[in-house]
């Protein structure tokens, strides 16, 4: 298959799909119309689908000839962000019609690319062997993520997968390029939300109260030097508090305080060590202050690690089909986090970065910001690059001795 030519012929398809999804964003766990649209599109191509409760949509393409099975994934949820009608330099070509909700991370592009790839693969079944599983994943951003029900469905229904593929559009990578990294592609993340219970009182008599605010100050102080004491300077680790909520009047000591945040790491052992330390420090400090602890959220998502043999093949396939200029060999790893890390810990695979930066279009604002936008010509390259790899991996069926699967259930329990 000439992947560049096939993608160019479907340029209008990927752009129109992206604009539809961008104009109709839905929040995590509320992507009902989005999934209806995905299923309708796939059914019109004759592609069988399954909707997994609280998980998302699967599509299944069978070439009719035996071979490997590759899983291709896109996430589908949007964010609670009010979109700026102007990107970095001009009015947008399309804007959210759901006020206060925006595809500010690029999942509209992910869905558009995967549906376009599904169309091309379906129309060219005679040019490849094996099967393709399409995974449209709910709630990648927040809440009760869809990844656990989706992977458990595959396991429980004995659906075999040999390798997996995913991509994320990237705000600072030029449109027309893809980044394919060896080793760590994206960071691991620990999400925490903890409530401290104390005893309320009057500000004039703190001795008669148990202040959760003073308790939190001690916890934050204890953690302040954590990175210097625990993490090697050659590794990347960071944490931050994103929310602290307690009280509302200056002379009333509140009964409760809620704090929340995230930690990011390039090694799973660093992230899990911080999780253990945070919970221990919080429990012990709370006991000293006379407070009790309620852990509301405690989720760890592992580092996204590409399989060496898959990267070897992916880089070669992209260069062969699209030319050396399409591959950014020096693209750095990204400190953001992906639930695809769990999929890629289950099967050998590769996770691309798809470039969407173009100053003439006005794209280039970081993800999760009101001015974030996509240079749509980058999506055409993304489609061609994905097809280049998928058709190559189905043909080559590479041995992957560097890959070592992680127990799925043990990993999923960290996310729940």
Automatic annotation (TrEMBL):
<feature type="binding site">
    <location>
        <position position="141"/>
    </location>
    <ligand>
        <name>Mn(2+)</name>
    </ligand>
</feature>
<feature type="binding site">
    <location>
        <position position="168"/>
    </location>
    <ligand>
        <name>Mn(2+)</name>
    </ligand>
</feature>
<dbReference type="InterPro" id="IPR011650">
    <property type="entry name" value="Peptidase_M20_dimer"/>
</dbReference>
<dbReference type="Pfam" id="PF07687">
    <property type="entry name" value="M20_dimer"/>
</dbReference>
<dbReference type="GO" id="GO:0046872">
    <property type="term" value="F:metal ion binding"/>
</dbReference>
<feature type="binding site">
    <location>
        <position position="107"/>
    </location>
    <ligand>
        <name>Mn(2+)</name>
    </ligand>
</feature>
<keyword id="KW-0464">Manganese</keyword>
<feature type="domain" description="Peptidase M20 dimerisation">
    <location>
        <begin position="188"/>
        <end position="284"/>
    </location>
</feature>
<dbReference type="GO" id="GO:0016787">
    <property type="term" value="F:hydrolase activity"/>
</dbReference>
<dbReference type="InterPro" id="IPR017439">
    <property type="entry name" value="Amidohydrolase"/>
</dbReference>
<protein>
    <submittedName>
        <fullName>Amidohydrolase</fullName>
    </submittedName>
</protein>
<keyword id="KW-0378">Hydrolase</keyword>
<keyword id="KW-0479">Metal-binding</keyword>
<dbReference type="InterPro" id="IPR036264">
    <property type="entry name" value="Bact_exopeptidase_dim_dom"/>
</dbReference>
<feature type="binding site">
    <location>
        <position position="105"/>
    </location>
    <ligand>
        <name>Mn(2+)</name>
    </ligand>
</feature>
<dbReference type="Pfam" id="PF01546">
    <property type="entry name" value="Peptidase_M20"/>
</dbReference>
<dbReference type="InterPro" id="IPR002933">
    <property type="entry name" value="Peptidase_M20"/>
</dbReference>
<feature type="binding site">
    <location>
        <position position="368"/>
    </location>
    <ligand>
        <name>Mn(2+)</name>
    </ligand>
</feature>
